[in-house]
Amino acid sequence: MTQEFLITILATAITAGTPILFAALGELLTERSGILNLGVEGMMLVGAVSGFIFAVKTNDPWLGVLAALVGGGLMALIHAFLTVTLQANQVVTGLALTLFGTGLSGFLGKPYIGVPIENAFKPVNLGILSDIPFIGPVFFQHDQLVYLSYIVVPVLWFLIYRTRLGLNLRAVGENPASADSLGVSVYKVRYFYVTLGGMLAGLGGAYLSLAYAPTWLENMTAGRGWIAVALVIFATWNPLRAMLGSYIFGGIDAFGFRAQAMGIAIPSFFLKMLPYIFTILVLIMVTRKAMANRVGSPGALGVPYDREER
Amino acid sequence: MTESLLVDMRQITKKFPGVLANDQVELQVKRGEILALLGENGSGKSTLMSILSGLYRPDAGEIYVAGHQVSFKSPREAIKAGIGMVHQHFKQVETFSVAENVILGSKDAGFTMNTKQVEKEIAELSQGYGLQVDPTAKIWQLSVAERQRVEIVKMLYRGSKLLVLDEPTAVLTPQEARELFQVIKQMTTRGQSVILITHKLNEVMEVADRVTILRNGKSVATRERSQVNERELARLMMGQDIIAPTKRKLGNLGQPILQLKDVSAPSDSNRAGLCNVSLSVREGEILGIAGIAGNGRRELAEAIVGLRSLTGGSITLCGKDVSNFSPREIIEEGVSYIPEDRLGSGLVPNLGAIDNLILKEYRRPGLGRGPFINRKLAKEFALRLIESVGVKLTGLEAPVKMLSGGNLQRILLARELAAKPKVIVAVYPVRGLDIAAAEAVHQMLLEQRSKGAAIVLISEDLEELLKLSDNIGVLYKGTLMGVLPVTEAEPEKVGLMMLGSQPEEVKAS
Ligand SMILES: Nc1ncnc2c1ncn2[C@@H]1O[C@H](COP(=O)(O)OP(=O)(O)O)[C@@H](O)[C@H]1O
Ligand SMILES: [Mg+2]
């Protein structure tokens, strides 16, 4: 394998991994607050389509990003209302939102299939950083959204593990009654992070339609939302590991793509299956390890909170 | 006069679906006093104090703190007003350290949490009160007594002027309880007030300055400690004189029925499971098991009924090896189980009384044919059982979760005892029941005993164990410290064994 080939694979791993990374970070925050969001796929699609529509209409990709944040955030707000206020079953509401988001995005995006986008995100050179041998082309010859993710990941890590807000967030996800008894508003925290999580999922979708593809296709997330859900478990709810995991998935994706292009004789179906097979393997491995070490899932994940309930 | 009043609760009323938990309750707390809040289980003590600490909102009534009317919308507001409560079920994040639990929700620690500084503050604060806690330890590593101290420190850290303790001694040994009383007495010398919730008369006499008594959700009296005695307190609490518990004759015990040999089993968490427990329960014997929560009581029960697989040793029933039998096989061997969590694992909360009662019976012929259940026969069967335990039910189909604790337990017992069990494993069978219901449950167990059942009674209440058991075994960190005949089991001695002393050492000291 030449160094050039390796660089291409790694660089593509990052771009292919970035939409999953944003979605996984969103899911991670949501789950940290104790709410399971199985609507990621739907939120990504809504983000992708609203981002695309606005970017095309305004010719400004950043307005597209804004629209994607709003679109994903609104979907998540519905989820928050159903699960936090109405205390509905989170699995059911999440699945419903995925169905809803798939349908809605298909409907809204119909007129935009095949429409070219002129102002999509393009790689931006970061000067010296981009010139570092190997490191430069792998990490620093990407578009602005990738650079944004480089900032978001450490910021979230710091927020979760090193700040009072993070302590509140973790407490709400582990034991809402305890947080509540000390004056942390469980509802506010959950609404906030569920919504923020949806916004990040929307951003992940927008990355696909505004930078990675960049185009709108019906169902263009192709299960990346589900990969993100699985990835959060692999990452044991830690943003840094989510980043690593996303790039691994991106790498598998990229490898499949390249291998095909290079004419390696593996059936293309199998190559397309790779990320999903890997997801299943990861889930099996991680759940077994998590069980053994008792690491992981927030204690109150999936359980609605009601102060006067016994 | 009002100057010295720290808290004044007037005409507090609180309804829950189907229950009037507090009915125009009056309660006053003075500065620097220990007020005992005395009442039977279900009399509304926790509810009243949850209102005072901002967790519940009252339906009616007024609360004054230091002369100003307040209406707390959340625990945070109560904490700000200087009122902190230690709930019966600790509200702690197990995966957090002590320090993290203490500063949770507090703004003092700064945005990025100066943990070192906080740990130092906590250490100083806890030493000042004689409360030993290690601020860096994780909650799940701590014993119950330590966790209770963390809860207290949490409130002191927030500058509580009034500390409410909800049945704090229920999870403590007599020795630990005495230490706790030292701490709260010290708080009053600093001008802080304490409300001690309890249903134990001796605790009132030991530490309280005054006592307010709740009965059926109403405040029936408030007395100076110096002007009451236990007898009067009991009368106020129950509305009648206590029937002196008749000291029961020791029965004549028959053949060994249930035998455990070197049984070891894992626990769910990092606590002790069971290690090499050997015991034997004979026909007509009640073997009481004492021990602090987390020392293997639950594991023991679950091992016997087949819910927890053994990693070593064997269990025999009437001479037959039943080690690692499935729960269903164990049931078929004649073992009945009254679990700790009656609504979670004992009964199916959303099913009606009939369905719950036939749960162990529906497989047998008599209630139906093949996979079908004959509802008419099932109803008759259920009615017979309900009658046998004297429960009055309004609807047989209504979800049982709507029933009171006493009736739930009676339905569970009706089902479990209907099969004429050879062995009964009962875990905290009267927890949360009022005196009448508790007495009924005790009578049912004694009746089974005289019919020759071998009973393992696991309880956190030493008095209950002393009242019912023929022999008492003590679990500590998963090991059986020894089995004493009830005649030799003085509370002090059992208490020390619960803390890990061998019976011989106890004798010597
Ligand atoms: N959260 C709740 N929801 C419904 N009923 C409750 C709740 N808390 C308490 N109750 C009921 O209110 C009554 C008083 O309970 P509680 O205040 O816990 O009594 P105590 O603390 O004196 O044992 C009981 O009948 C209990 O079943
Ligand atoms: Mg109570």
Number of beta-strand segments of chain A: 0
The major pleated sheet of chain A works out as: none
> How many domains of chain A, as an integer?
1
Largest interface, counted by CB within 8 Å of the partner chain's CB: A-B, 23 and 32 residues
Tell me the CATH topology of chain A: ABC transporter involved in vitamin B12 uptake, BtuC
What's the order of the H and E elements of chain A? HHHHHHHHHHHHH
Organism (chain A): Desulforamulus aeronauticus DSM 10349
GO molecular function, one term (chain A): transmembrane transporter activity
Pfam families (chain A): BPD_transp_2 (PF02653)
Subcellular location (chain A): Cell membrane
Give a short overview.
Chain A: This is Nucleoside ABC transporter membrane protein. With 310 residues, chain A is mainly alpha-helical. Helix content of chain A is 73%, strand content 0%.
Looking at this protein, list some descriptive labels:
heterodimer; A: 310 residues; mainly alpha; ABC transporter involved in vitamin B12 uptake, BtuC; 0% strand; globular; B: 509 residues; alpha/beta; Rossmann fold; 3 domains; 6-stranded mixed beta sheet; 18 helices; 22 strands; 34% helix; binds adenosine-5'-diphosphate; binds magnesium ion
